[in-house]
Amino acid sequence: MSFRGRMLLFFVIVVVIPMVAVGIVLWSLIAESEIGRADAELAGALNVATAVYEDARANALDDLREVSSADRIERAAVEGDRDQLARAATRLARRNDAVESIALYDRDGEEIAVVGTPQALAFATAIQRGPGGRRIGRIGVSTTRAREYVEEMSERAGVEARVVREGEHLAGTLPGAAGANPLATAIESPEAEFRGRYGRVQDAVGAPAQVGVFQDADRIAASIADGRRLVLAILLAFFVLALALSLLVVRSLGGQVGRLLGAARRLGSGDFDARVPADGRDEFAALAREFNLMSERLRQNVDELERRRREREQAIRRVGEAFASGLDRGGIARLAARSAVEACSAEAGRTIAADRADGKPASVGSDDRRITKALGAAESAARESPDQPTAVNRDGVHALATALRGAPEPDRHRRGLGSLAIARDGAPFDEAERDLFAYLAAQASVSLDNAGLHEATREEAVTDSLTGLYNRRHFDAALDGEIGRSRRFGGDVGLLMLDLDGFKPVNDEHGHAEGDRVLSELAALLRTLTRDVDHLARYGGDEIAVILPETDVEGAQLLAERVRAGVERLSLRPPGAAEPLPITASIGVAAFPESAEDRRALLRAADGALYQAKRRGGNRVMRADSTAVPR
Fold first, then answer.
1. Element (H or E) spanning 382, and its range?
2. pLDDT value at position 483?
3. Reduced 3-state DSSP string for 328-373
């Protein structure tokens, strides 16, 4: 087969056959992709439906509290008088225009009465308790009708919607949906055909409802057709372009064969510019046999050595750049020692970082005593002459060491960061190795200095400079983390909100310096009374927040009492004052999940308890009420 024929066959195998296969696959994938995208949009719409449902239920909480706390409801529930409960609920529903329905259930979940519109949805519920906290029933209040719900959900999700409960169509935005099967996923209307899916929304009382979301099926079909037309156009354009390029390449290569054969004969006489493979019996193989006559005349060793030298320098430069960008002190120390040993052909090396917590050097290579002694001698010499690398010879072991120093301070003093040393038995280190060692040491110094600055900056970013407590940013992140951990693994999260009583007069009468001293003493007291796992934060001004992992509301209240008593015992006497400052604290106590169901609610509960303590005169601990939290 000629060269031209092989190229055309190659074109068919490499371009045409795969293109046909890809076209077939894409033809089917486009339909699956569009349907999948539509299903994903419907799934997102169901998430919106659930969110709207939860919003509606949350909107009913205030009315739930009003209804559940009504005297007639509470009295009838305690007495177990079902008729009186029903009458009282009916009167409350008529009197409150916002309430669409009130549902009453006994302690066993049996329905007592449901008053109001039958199209009510999204009941906010609460447990009714009698004397001694005994559970006597459950009450639910709805402020949302089915029509309002589907209209809001359809507007927010951008789809058509309907809601069905117990096989009965309650409301919908689809034309003709009222007469359709209660759970039909395909609905035809005079204007279009719709496809959709259903999701379930459940209250703590009553039967669950099915929410359906629908899209125009004709739009999906049109998207599939548009996608297929686009793919067909792209494949045709690709085929035409590939064919034109293949013909151009075949014509060009055919003309090059003769020229390359003559060039190969010239190269065989001593022109060492290039090589070609000699496989097969075609024109390129003939050219390759002539071309490869010069192979043994190449200076392979020189080229190989030059290549290795360039690769070695590039690798060392990359290592140096890695030093400058690293932030892990231990990793930097180990990388510096290992890189210096490998780059300078040493047998052992070690880095001593002055600020490492464990104080241990990062060592690599041989642990021979002679080499270890030489490393120590070189390090001692480097400390005496920190401006340049120092070479030492001990019993035939040659060592090289240098001090690692940070950037110049404002007083031009350079802070010591440690030292880097390498050693080997035999030949001393030459000038090139010394220069390379000095470069690596400089990069390691930059990296260690950057790591120290990064650690200091990170600590300052989450700490209040006056009290040493965490700041508001860290507090918010820590509270989110503890609540998330509680939800995953169980357990409680306690929260204290502390505010000093009469703190403003301290600043006004004795100055802000004395106020700062009070806050510092308060922070020190809190550290002595709390655990290491607790999070103490300056929430703002003289307000302190304490997160207590694995602590219920009773435990949090006990700690709060100890803190309150400790603050009261503080004896801080301003300069020139006859009496110490009368320092007391008001503390609000709450816990997740007993007092609230999320972070914001927990903060509101603790803050509300705090200001209740303030309103009652201060110097007291108040606990958030948990009885109105929906279960």
1. helix 369-384
2. 94
3. CHHHHHHHHHHHHHHHCCCCEEEEEECCCCCCCCEEEECCCHHHHH
Catalogue the E-assigned strands of 535-596. Answer: 535-540, 543-549, 584-592
CB atoms near residue 575 (< 10 Å): 8
Judged by phi (left if over 0) then psi (alpha if -120 to 50, else beta), residue 122 lies in left
- Among candidate residues 105, 203, 192, 110, the one with its CA nearest the CA of residue 163: 203
Alpha helices in 530-552 (DSSP H): none
Closest CA to 244 of 13, 15, 5, 2: 15
At 469 the three-state DSSP class reads: coil
Tokens of 527: 């550290």
**Residue-level pLDDT at 265:** 60
Describe the strand order of the beta sheet including 168-172 as a list of residue ranges.
168-172, 160-165, 209-216, 193-201, 186-188
**3-class DSSP state of 590:** strand
Alpha-carbon distance of 292 to 614, in angstroms, equals: 96
CA trace torsion 89, 92, 98, 102 (10° rounding): -10
Residue with tokens 């009714």: 128
> Contact at 8 Å (CB) between 1 and 202?
no
User: Could you report the per-residue pLDDT of 26-43, keeping only the tens digit for each?
Assistant: 777 777 777 778 778 888
Q: Taking every pair of C-alpha atoms in the chain, what is the biggest distance, in angstroms?
A: 117
Query: Residue 332 has which token pair?
Result: 């930097």
Q: Is the bond into 593 cis (omega within 30 degrees of 0)?
A: yes
SS3 595: coil
For the record, the structure tokens of 534 come out as: 């607790």
| Token pair listed for 241 | 């372009």
What is the separation of C-alpha 405 from the centre of its chain, rounded to a whole number of angstroms?
Answer: 36
pTM summary value: 0.38
Lowest mean pLDDT among 256-265, 270-279, 329-338, 507-516: 256-265
What string of DSSP letters covers 423-443? EEESSPP-HHHHHHHHHHHHH
Instruction: Tell me which DSSP letter residue 413 carries.
Output: P
Phi first, then psi, for residue 358 (nearest 5°) are: -85, -10
What tokens appear for 395 in the block? 């019993």
Mean pLDDT of 364-382: 88
DSSP string, 147-178: HHHHHHHHHHHTSEEEEEETTEEEEESSTT-T
- Cβ–Cβ < 8 Å for 494, 556: yes
What is the per-residue pLDDT across 469-515, written as a single tens digit (0 to 9) for each? 999 989 999 999 999 999 999 899 999 999 998 888 887 777 778 88
Tell me how far apart the alpha carbons of residues 541 and 563 are, in angstroms, rounded to a whole number.
18
Would you say how long the chain is, in residues? 631
Percentage helix, strand, coil for the chain under 3-state DSSP, each rounded to 5: 55, 20, 25
Q: Which residue in this structure is represented by tokens 């290992």?
A: 338
**Which residue(s) pair with 546 in the sheet?**
496, 536
Read off the DSSP letter of residue 387: T
**Cβ neighbours around 555 below 10 Å, total:** 15
